[in-house]
User: What shape does this take?
Amino acid sequence: MVRVGIVGAGNTIGIAGMHIQGYKRIPEVKITAVYDILRERSQEYIHRFDLKDAKACESYEELLGEVDAVSICTPNAYHIELTIQALKAGKHVYCEKPFGNNAKECEPVLRYAESSGKVCMIGLCYRGIPAYMYMKKLIDEGELGEIFYVRQSQGGNRIANPEVKLEWRMQEELSGPGAMADFGSHMLDIGDMLIRDCAGPIREVQCMSTICIKERKKINGSGTGAVDNDDVASFSAKTEKGVLLSYTASRIGSKHTTEVYGSGGCAFFDGKEPFSLQIQKKDPDGGYTGDLETVKVPEELYMINENVPKQPFVINFYFAMKEFIDAIETGAPVVTDFSRGIYIQKLIDALWESSKTGNSINIDFQ
Ligand SMILES: NC(=O)c1ccc[n+]([C@@H]2O[C@H](COP(=O)([O-])OP(=O)(O)OC[C@H]3O[C@@H](n4cnc5c(N)ncnc54)[C@H](O)[C@@H]3O)[C@@H](O)[C@H]2O)c1
Assistant: This one.
């Protein structure tokens, strides 16, 4: 049995709720503690998710005394200190993405992670979307031929409403970059996961960004404050073999889509359809002229046991939480470990720099 503690119950999106839904489908897990800096949130989550074995903790230290592993779901700026504290206390850590506000701040964690021998995982959980598993398989098997380019777009509509107050994610001090890091972290992870084996690692990035709603009401009611990180970021990356990836991250309106174009055909993913892809074959001597065909993801790719949920979004959190718990129980490595978290964070740093200087940035790490 693995005793898990939830840190940061949720006040805006409340991603902790997805962690809980994932854990509840894993028989080896007991959620034994919840801690939120807003104390009433912990009790509210215990009630809302019917966490019968969980204690609403008064402090983080108290939570650490009740668990073997933590799920850190706080604003980005607190990820690092909470992670280090958990590792020092000998706990396994699942930390939400992005790893922190910037890579420099994250790097000291690696030292604690390595010496702890604990499982350390970053919440880059979109890899568990069945359509992405299938897209990767098709690319690896050469079904799309030589990859030409990739286009991804991700974000949300909630913040398009100017009445949404000035949240932590709109302040650089608490979040680092905005949409660029929030949605960019997932997109950079997925784009690289899909094509690195055939196109090589990213070698160059460029970014432009903008703030669309510059002023918002403060949460505490004391007037308004400035949004100081991006609502929308448009960026591109080029790999070692010259394949271009093009991205839009937007929190003021966006569809979730991924398109991969290759010499053998193209594949389209629509975030609303995580169990299928659309495929169009390419005429070897012409264009993408074949019929657009909707193909279901083969169930054997994701129906690995009877607990796998079939709801969009819940399924990828289930796979992430299961990978974390399996690693704790078996010692197996996790794919999105802290090194991966720092790699993605360094790419975000480069985008942030590019958006400020207007320069394209060479990437000399992988
Ligand atoms: N994986 C995904 O798809 C995904 C989606 C949304 C958010 N996230 C990430 O999850 C994290 C949380 O985002 P959210 O939208 O759920 O935030 P949220 O605002 O809904 O919840 C954060 C909670 O943390 C609490 N908190 C703040 N500081 C704390 C501290 N020091 N100790 C304990 N609790 C503290 C707040 O009171 C709040 O209840 C962020 O890092 C975000 O990037 C990931």
User: Anything to note?
Assistant: The pocket of nicotinamide-adenine-dinucleotide is lined by residues 7-15, 35-38, 41, 73-76, 78, 96-97, 123, 125, 182 (CB under 6 Å). The CA atoms of residues 121 and 338 lie 6 Å apart.
